[in-house]
Write a structure and sequence with these properties.
The chain has 412 residues and is α/β, with parallel strands linked by helices. Helix content is 42%, strand content 19%. It is built from 14 helices and 15 strands. Helix 2 packs across helix 11, helix 3 runs parallel beside helix 4 and helix 5 runs parallel beside helix 6.
Amino acid sequence: MARAVSRPVLRSAAVLLAAAFAAAIPPAFAQQPPPLRIGVLTDMNGPYGDAAGPGSVAAANLAVADFGPTVLGRRIEIVAADHQNKPDLAVSIAREWFDTKGVDMVTDLTNSSVAIAVQALAAEKHKIDLVTSTATTALTNEACTATSAHWTFDSYALTAGTGRALVESGAKKWFFITADYAFGANLQRTAAREIERSGGTIAGTSLAPLNTTDFASQLIAAQASGADVVGLANSGADTANAVKQAVEFGLTGKQKLAAFLPFLTDIKAIGLPNARGLILTTAFYWDRDEASRAFSQRFEAVRKAPPTMIQAGTYSAVLHYLRAVRAARTTDAAAVTGAMRATRVHDAVFADGYIRADGRMVHDMYLVQVKTPAESTSPWDLYKVLRTIPGERAFQPLSEGSCRLVAAGARS
């Protein structure tokens, strides 16, 4: 008669068998921690597709390549989507990313209304948003949050430096051609304030609807004003059309032309014969120094063009975020934001920046002038840098802000 085996012996054998089976499983099949995901939410095919879009995704991937493929033992992944410049769609995508896709940080956010809406959602979900492509100063004023940062530029920095520099050079009388919606009004308001503070005057304004193709009436009004400078408070195709038609009207031979938000890709599209002499402020130029050139060459190898300031800003923001995750040893939004604010921003894009209490990333800006065809030595050799604008002068002072996170004493 066979001898019965006790239950304890059977249980022990089962445990040993299970352990042996687990040890035999290749490491690739073992439990892996979830990836750390960063979302690039941008305009892929619309009016900002060239300045942001796929180029921002490429910039984010370059930042991951420079940082390394993992952080805290987790693989880093970049996910991307097209918000089509629709705030509702952007919020829907971001909500799904935060709730079900494991996205801890979202960046780019081209379009002011998109950025404001997603920033509010990120705060609600205890996630981080780093806005690299939007001009509205609301992000660091009434819409500021504890886990956000406005990275690359804003309407104050784009307009104040240009306006101040031209007034100081003797061009005191200004006329505005302004996009007839909130973005254009914000650009004109911030520019006019700095122009008047510097001793300049505003001769008049002519509004133009978004996507205007005929600026004849606005340019005639600008010529009749006798202004020293015609300021273009618009962007994208509107800026390109206004500049081209200003040349046709002969305006640039008698008056200076200042643009507040053209990107490198816009200047390329306009062409140096039309854009030459145009004055603007930018956060980044590929040919600024050795570090910017080296980064831009790597980017151009992928995208066949050097980065715009949006794309360069996205690279910087992603890299700084990953460094902060490593320093904080967690992806918790509050801890990572604290680490980001405690560390200077230093990379190939921004040599020395810092994040203020209102979320503004402060860094130098550059006043540039578009070269003439004779001055340009290569296809993307478009700007000559006239001056560096120190970050403390480039951005809105805390004393003029309205972010509820900034103590009253810090504004005095």
